[in-house]
Amino acid sequence: MSKKIKITLTKSTIGASPRQRKVVEALGLRKLNQSVELIDNEVTRGSVNKVPHLLTVEEI
After folding, report:
1. Checking phi first, is residue 33 left (phi over 0); if not, alpha (psi -120 to 50) or beta?
2. Which of 40, 41, 54, 56 is the most exposed place for a label (fewest CB within 10 A)?
3. SS3 for the chain, per residue?
4. What is the pTM of this model?
5. In terms of C-beta density within 10 A (0-12 exposed, 13-18 middle, 19 or more buried), how is residue 39 classed?
6. What sign has the CA pseudo-torsion 5, 45, 7, 10?
């Protein structure tokens, strides 16, 4: 079974650059405090590393 991670948007994207907003949207996050569960792979980790100041990540 693949490992999953739970990603939560904890800070607003209002002050973020347009590129960072697109990364957050690509992760499936739209609202503040919304969480998604994604498969833990290189693509997901790379996206999370682009905006770590906006997200909280938990391993499931």
Report:
1. left
2. 41
3. CCCEEEEEECCCCCCCCHHHHHHHHHCCCCCCCCEEEEECCHHHHHHHHHCCCCEEEEEC
4. 0.90
5. exposed
6. positive
Structure tokens at 18: 């347009």
Residue 40, both tokens: 């833990």
CA distance 32 to 29: 8
What's the token pair of residue 59?
Answer: 């391993």
pLDDT in tens, 1-30: 579 999 999 999 999 999 999 999 999 999
